[in-house]
Write a structure and sequence with these properties.
With 458 residues, the chain is an alpha+beta fold. The chain is 56% helix and 10% strand. The protein is built from 17 helices and 11 strands. The strands form 4 sheets. Strands 9-10-6-11 form a 4-stranded antiparallel beta sheet. The protein has a 3-stranded antiparallel beta sheet with strand order 2-1-5, with helices on one face. Strand 9 and strand 10 form a beta hairpin. Helix 8 packs across helix 16 and helix 10 crosses helix 11. The longest helix is centred in the C-terminal third of the chain and has 30 residues. The chain binds a DNA duplex (9 and 12 nucleotides) through helix 4, helix 6, strand 4, helix 11 and helix 12.
Length: 458
DNA sequence: TGTTCATGG
DNA sequence: TATCCATGAACA
C-alpha cells in the first residue's frame, strides 16, 4: 500500500476507535419529558386534524377518494391539487410530478394547505422524540457514527441519527433538543469549524480572491454578491431585510454555484427565499423591504427588472462575472481537476483517500472538498480523545456532526478543554497538514451545567 | 423497492 | 458536466 493510502487508512482506523468510545458514552435522554411532550403533541395533532377534516377542502378531497381517502398521502394530495382542482404546480419534483413540498403548498395560497404544513411539522417533531425514546437504553441513547458508508469519506450517523436533529427552525429545535442532556453534574459543549468547506476548498484551488475574503475579517463575500444580485447601493447587515437578502444570496446563489449549480436553478431558489414566485412578479409582491410595505418586487421593478425572465437574465450575467472575473482561479482548478480525473480515472484527496468509478464534473470537484473538510474534524476528534485518555480527564467526546464536535464536559475541566480544542484546531492541525494554507477558526458553545442541548433555555 | 418529503452539514 | 453528501418515515 502506498504511503498516502496508508495514512488514509490510519485516519479511519484511529477515527473509528475514537468514535466508538463516543458511542459507548452516549447522550442522556429525559424520558419523562419525551412522554409528556409526545402526549401534548398528540393532543395538538388531534385538534388540528379534526379542524382540517371539517373544511370544505378536505370534504372535496374525500369526494375524489371515497373510503380510501388518506390525508397523509402526498400522492392523493398531488392528484387532488393538480388533477381534480387543476391547479398549476408552483414547482415540479425531480421526476416531473407536481410537488407538494412546503414551498409549493405555501405558494398555492390556500389556507387549508397551511394547516397541513403545520400538521406535517408537528409530526416530524414527534417522530424525532419517538426515535430517541425507541433507541434509549437505561435512559441513554447511543448514536452510531459510521466511517465506511459515505462515498466522499465523510461520516454518517444512525440509530438514532444525531446529525439531523432540528436546529434551523427554532421551535422544532427547542422541543427536540430539550430531550437531550449530559451526564449528571456535567455540561454540554459544542465546537464548530467556521465555514470549513470554503477554507478547505481554497487549499485545493488557491483562488486569490477567495483567499482575500478569508484573510480579511472585514470583508463579506455574501454581502458583496448580494449587492450585485439585488442591486443595492450599500449593504447594511443591521437592516433585517438586508440580512435576509444576504442569506438568500448565500444559500440561493453562492453555495449552489460553488457546488456546480447554474443560473436558471439559482434564480428559482432565490425567488423561493424572497417569497416572489414566477407568476407574481408585480408591485406589492415578495418579502417586504421596509415597514411601508415596499416589497422586493417594487425594488427590482424600480431598477428595471420587471419580470422573472429579466431577473433570470440578470442572474445569468452575475454568474458569468462570478466565474470569469471574481473566482476565475477556482474555475480553472475545476477544469484541471476534471481533466486529471479523465486521464487517471480517480481523484485523490490531500488526506490520501481516493474516489474511483464514474463521477460527474460536479462530483469530481466537490468530493475532495467535502471529504477533506470532515477529515480535519476527525483528526481533531482523535487527538482530543488521546488527550482525554492520557490526562485521565472526566470529560467525554459524545458525538460529531461533520464540522462540529459535541462533548460532555466536567465543569472543572471546562477552560482546559476549550483551550485544547482551540489549539488542536487552529494550530496543531495546520502544522500537521502543510497543505492547509489559510487560517482556520472555530466557535465554541457552552451549555449550562445539567442543561439540555437546547440553545434557548437549557 | 422507489419516490417524496423533511431534517442536518 | 446543469446543487454535493447523508438518514428515516410514509406511501404506492
Amino acid at each position: 500500500m502506498s504511503n498516502k493510502l496508508m495514512q488514509a487508512y490510519q485516519l479511519l482506523h484511529e477515527g473509528i476507535l475514537a468514535l466508538s468510545k463516543a458511542e459507548e458514552v452516549g447522550f442522556r435522554v429525559d424520558l419523562d419529558y419525551i412522554n409528556t411532550t409526545v402526549d401534548k403533541l398528540d393532543n395538538d395533532l388531534i385538534q388540528l386534524e379534526k379542524s382540517f377534516k371539517e373544511t370544505k377542502f378536505y370534504k372535496h378531497w374525500c369526494h375524489s377518494f371515497g373510503r380510501q381517502v388518506n390525508m397523509n398521502s402526498d400522492t392523493q394530495l398531488r392528484y387532488f391539487l393538480y388533477h381534480v382542482k387543476r391547479l398549476k404546480p408552483p414547482k415540479l419534483t425531480e421526476n416531473g410530478e407536481g410537488s407538494t413540498d412546503e414551498y409549493s403548498l405555501k405558494a398555492l395560497n390556500i389556507p387549508e394547505l397551511n394547516q397541513l404544513v403545520k400538521i406535517r411539522k408537528l409530526k416530524k417533531i414527534k417522530d424525532y422524540l419517538e426515535r430517541f425514546k425507541r433507541e434509549a437504553v437505561d435512559g441513554i441513547i447511543h448514536p452510531i457514527f459510521n466511517l465506511h458508508l459515505v462515498k466522499t469519506y465523510r461520516s454518517s450517523s444512525s440509530n438514532p441519527n444525531l446529525q439531523n436533529v432540528p436546529s434551523k427552525d427554532a421551535f422544532a429545535s427547542d422541543i427536540c433538543r430539550k430531550a437531550l442532556y449530559p451526564r449528571k453534574g456535567h455540561m454540554l459543549m459544542e465546537m464548530d469549524f467556521k465555514s470549513i468547506e470554503v477554507s478547505i476548498g481554497v487549499c485545493y484551488h488557491k483562488d486569490p480572491e477567495m483567499i482575500k475574503y478569508l484573510k480579511n475579517p472585514k470583508s463579506d463575500m455574501h454581502a458583496d454578491v448580494s449587492k450585485e444580485i439585488f442591486l443595492l447601493d450599500k449593504f447594511d447587515k443591521s437592516i433585517s431585510s438586508h440580512s435576509i437578502l444576504r442569506k438568500a444570496t448565500k444559500n440561493g446563489f453562492v453555495f449552489p454555484q460553488f457546488y456546480g449549480d447554474y443560473y436558471k436553478n439559482c434564480t428559482k431558489i432565490l425567488c423561493e427565499w424572497i417569497k416572489l414566485p414566477q407568476s407574481k412578479w408585480q408591485r406589492g409582491e415578495g418579502m417586504e423591504l421596509d415597514t411601508k410595505s415596499f416589497t422586493i418586487a417594487d425594488h427590482l421593478i424600480s431598477k428595471g427588472i420587471n419580470s422573472y425572465f429579466l431577473f433570470e437574465k440578470h442572474i445569468e450575467k452575475i454568474e458569468r462575472n462570478f466565474w470569469e472575473n471574481r473566482f476565475s482561479v477556482y474555475r480553472e482548478w475545476k477544469e484541471r481537476n476534471w481533466n486529471l480525473y479523465l486521464k487517471r480515472g480517480y481523484i485523490e484527496f490531500y488526506t490520501g483517500f481516493r474516489c474511483n468509478g464514474p463521477m460527474s464534473f460536479n462530483d469530481v470537484n466537490n468530493y475532495p472538498i467535502q471529504g477533506t473538510s470532515f477529515h480535519c474534524l476527525l483528526w481533531v476528534f482523535i487527538q482530543m480523545d488521546k488527550i482525554i485518555t492520557e490526562n485521565h480527564l472526566d470529560t467525554r467526546l459524545i458525538g460529531q456532526i461533520h464540522d462540529s464536535i459535541i462533548l460532555d464536559v466536567r465543569p472543572e475541566e471546562k477552560d482546559y478543554i476549550k483551550k485544547v480544542l482551540r489549539e488542536l484546531s487552529c494550530e496543531r492541525l495546520p502544522s500537521h497538514w502543510d497543505w492547509i494554507i489559510v487560517p482556520l477558526d472555530v466557535e465554541i458553545q457552552e451549555f449550562p451545567i445539567d442543561g439540555s442541548w437546547s440553545v434557548k433555555n437549557s
